[in-house]
Amino acid sequence: MSPIAAVLLAKSVRTFCYGFLGILLPVYLAEHGMDARGVGLAVTCTLGGSAALTWAVRRPAERLGARAALGALALLSVLAAALLLVSEHPWVVVLAAMIGNVAVGTGETGPFLSIEQVVVARAVTGTRRTTVLSLYNLLGYAAGGLGAAIVGLTAPRALFAIFLAASVVQAVLYARLPAAVPAPRVPAGAGPSSALIRRLAALFALDSFAGGFVLQSLVAYFLHERYGLGLEALGQIFLGAQLVTAASLLLASRAARRFGLLNTMVVSHLVSNVFLVAIAAAPTAWVAVALLYARQLLSQMDVPTRQAYLMAVVEDHEREAAATTTTLWRTVAQAVSPSVTGWVMASVALAAPFVLGGGLKIVYDLMLWITFKDVKPRELT
């Protein structure tokens, strides 16, 4: 099995589980006694665990290769699934989500993503990279949508058992990767792209901080509390959202070839955030869902283009550093806002996070364009 095939299959298996866990866990915690503030704090803890794993995985990935790093992460997911099966205590559930790097948003962040995008970047030529990364993300969103569709069809313990089986499958797939990544030796000291990586990381952190106000888990909580939607309805809604997102990724590579990576990132993301802000004023559940779908149709086109741009503007030996640094900053920033969101929902207005998140994301889009409009990739993507 080729490294690309192993990574694509592992991504699909993992995000299938994230599709139902991201919806199930906040409702599950609420049913076990947590209020909005507790759910927000739980999401923050989950993202904090993801950030810690992202920081910890860089050196093993550089020294031992992707197979060892990803295999260890898969074994942690096995442990997380086991904890979910043996305990219903809310904070044991949160601990399991932390060590299992359970995604709480429509898009994945964390250590798996950091290492897998480097595997992809080294396995394909520059001209194909955006296309393969689009496929990588498309499979993730499609699998996540299918996972969301089953959330109301069976009991939580059955879903946790599926997560356990999927984690074992992931470990087996990673064992098929090459024993070592043929990466160039990393020179001592800061790389030539260190300043550029820091600027990108800072802007990506702003985007993720804003995104933390409207993570899938918190949007599911909003729809549940404001409109009274149950798990089955939420599962169908987020199935549609994931499939719309997956379809949009088919356009990302074509748009990037025509308009450029940065232009595609900024314009699609900016328009999507107008729809995001509008959700706050939706009078009915289905108006809110329609606006959510309009947002998802555009908002994730920047994901493969952002990944391809990052891999193309740094030297090959800096790719682990670029991927883990930007992902770490994104995850840490995203970890702060959910706990704030819980307080805002409870103390200001249930819909206020959509205005805060969308507004900050628009600021990010404008700053990204101003800062990087003259920075060109080192190779065609």
Q: Using the 3D structure, state the CATH architecture.
A: Up-down Bundle
Give the overall form. Answer: globular
Q: What's the domain count?
A: 1
How many helices does DSSP assign? 15
- Helix share bin: over 70%
In whole angstroms, the N-to-C terminal distance is 25 Å
Low-confidence stretches: none
In the CATH hierarchy, the third-tier topology is known as Growth Hormone, Chain: A
Description:
The chain starts with a helix and ends in a 9-residue tail after the last helix. With 381 residues, it is an all-alpha fold. The model has no long low-confidence stretch (mean pLDDT 85). The longest helix has 29 residues, at 3-31. The protein has a single domain (3-179, 191-372), classed as Growth Hormone, Chain: A, CATH 1.20.1250. It has helices at residues 3-31, 36-64, 66-86, 90-99, 111-123, 126-149, 156-174, 194-211, 216-227, 231-259, 261-278, 285-299, 302-313, 319-347, 352-372.
